[in-house]
Amino acid sequence: MTINFKESASFIWSMAELLRGDYKQSEYGRVILPLTVLRRLDCVLEPTKEAVLSYLPQTKGLSPEAAETVLKKKAKLSFYSKSKFDFQKLVADPNDIAANLRNYINGFSKNARSILEHFNFNDHIERLDKSNLLYMIVKRFAEVDLHPDKIQNIEMGYIFEELIRKFADLSNETAGEHFTPREVIRLMVNILFLNDKDVLTKKGIVKTLYDPACGTGGMLSVAEEYLRELNPGADLRVFGQELNPESYAICNSDMLIKGQNTEHIKFGNSFTQDGLKDEKFDYMLSNPPFGVEWKKIEEEITKEYEKLGFSGRFGAGLPRISDGSFLFLQHMISKMRPENGGARLGIVFNGSPLFSGGAVSGESEIRKWIIENDMLEAIIAMPDQLFYNTGISTYIWIVTNRKEKERKDKIQFINAVESFSKMPRSLGNKRNEISDEHITEITKIYGEFKECEYCKIFPNEYFGYTRVTVERSLRLNFQVLKERIERLDEQPGLINLAKSKKKGKEGLREIEEGEKLKKDIKVMLLTFDSKLYRNREKFIEVIEQVAEKSRLEIKAPVMKAILEALSERDGTADICMDKDGNPEPDTDLRDYENIPLMDNIEDYFKREVLPHVSDAWMDRSKDKVGYEINFTKEFYKYKPLRSLKEIRNDILALEKETEGLMGEVLKD
């Protein structure tokens, strides 16, 4: 970053002060951002402006398409302006500033004009003019030089992103949804391209790169810059889609200036309005918003999932509604080029996609699909406080459909949480940054693919587990006590006795008979003593004998209700057996074990469960396979507890210090 960038960013930011009073703080960006784009385009067109204007008369007999082609050649760019105005001429006529500014904007070629339209800036021209602000702010913008010779494209990206961050801070919006720190992108690009350098350095090589949440285009720009450094003759064609209109316009203006095809940058929601539906790509990069719910588009996403399955984008499953991270990843995987060496992608996630959701949940099924299809190549744990909008820890996932031979059926973990430098001044939540040296070191660890202090390598199945249902025997005691008899009124089996589906007299008769049976059962139970029974079969025999003497017919639902009311769990009681003579499970004691796929389930059960609960057994009919990634566990370092002596000494020192402070207070 040069002095020009810093000075220009500060100068542009200072213009927002002109809007104070006439505009809310949350509205500043709606004026400053489009004028920054317009001034940038103005500076880029300056060298060829006169050549375009002088040639205009000769285009009168040409078709619109032919005229556009010729004028772009004259401008030596992919856009042009037919208006006689520029910022200097606008400032020279203060009385007609509004009309002239509209004329200037309307004079741009269609591709540039459509970018400006996404800012809806025309709505603000009249408002600024009526407030006597339009001339002042255009005059100030005319003083800043944003020509590419002064401000390079990468630096212009920093300017836009710094402005967005500051405007977002003023309006309490999430700036980090729009852009990613450049050093993070550089690391991702390094890793994404590392093993393809032999291909990427070939003469005339053409590759494609896509970002489904491209924001201001930072990832696309850094990737293009990297490839040009590697091979000036390479052609990286970038594609993207963005939901925020202002970010979309900024991204498109950057692509326009650099000669990229602006038709490749689409506006709208990537999930519901996929502007690049039939495209496949060589590379993909993205930093989708963290933990953003997708309830607004739930109906469309669910419909595609249920109707198309794996023929659509979300066949592996749908994540919980509160976090759409895995929707982005599945969307990107669906756009992987299957031929010519396949594709590679890098995506930034928070920790949630690693482990959220149990077996057969949407998240687990998506992880299972990715891992079992051998697409997850590496996960890199990044330092915290690295992003502008959040201080939480983040992870870079590298996913591919063309793993190299040595990486087949393996996943690499890189722990880079300590690879950072403290920033001299924080930017929002961003207090840390990764230097070029850190990028080089992390890339080296990735490329060497060897285990070390910061790198571990695991087989795919290491992250899978079988969720086994562990049952324990139901043990109950039975006793006829007043408080237990009272529970009968809560049992559905007895409540239903006083109900009837029949109508009229027949229904009333059934209800009366049911009420009478309830009373008779309670009367019968009052004849029992308070003896405690620890065997269900014996207790049932006693009830049946007494009921027979009382001439009461007790059917199965009623017997079940009686047993439920008069029983309590008792670990010393006999096991309750079902009709086939098998132990009946106690649902209250039911538990689950996540047994690694790499472990033998029977051996695990004998080793880890039976020594603690000897009457337990597994219900294998309920087995479920899940996948989760516990990254932190793999790099955990045990820290021994401090000795009691050390703790005692610290407490005594604090007490002594407190006594001294209290003494000073009392003196005062």
Spell out the blueprint of helices and strands.
Blueprint: H1 3-14, H2 28-45, H3 49-55, H4 64-75, H5 87-91, H6 97-106, H7 110-117, H8 122-130, H9 134-142, H10 153-171, H11 182-194, H12 197-200, E1 206-211, H13 218-230, E2 235-242, H14 245-257, E3 265-267, E4 283-286, H15 298-308, H16 325-333, E5 344-349, H17 352-355, H18 362-372, E6 376-381, E7 395-400, E8 410-415, E9 421-427, E10 430-433, H19 436-448, E11 455-459, E12 464-471, E13 476-478, H20 482-485, H21 492-495, H22 504-525, H23 536-549, H24 556-566, E14 567-569, E15 591-596, H25 601-609, E16 617-627, H26 631-634, H27 644-667
Parallel strand pairs: 1-2, 1-4, 2-3, 4-5, 6-8
Antiparallel strand pairs: 5-7, 6-7, 8-11, 9-10, 12-15, 12-16, 13-14
Helix pairs in contact: 1-10, 2-10, 2-14, 3-4, 6-8, 7-14, 11-13, 11-19
Give your account of this protein's structure:
By secondary structure, the chain is an alpha/beta fold. It has three domains: 171 residues; 289 residues, Rossmann fold; 94 residues, no CATH class. The protein is built from 27 helices and 16 strands. The strands form four sheets. The protein has a nine-stranded mixed β-sheet with strand order 3-2-1-4-5-7-6-8-11, sandwiched between helices. It has a three-stranded antiparallel β-sheet with strand order 15-12-16. Strands 9-10 form a two-stranded antiparallel sheet. Strand 1, helix 13 and strand 2 form a beta-alpha-beta unit. The longest helix has 24 residues. The radius of gyration is 36 Å and the shape is elongated. The two termini are 54 Å apart. The model has no long low-confidence stretch (mean pLDDT 90).
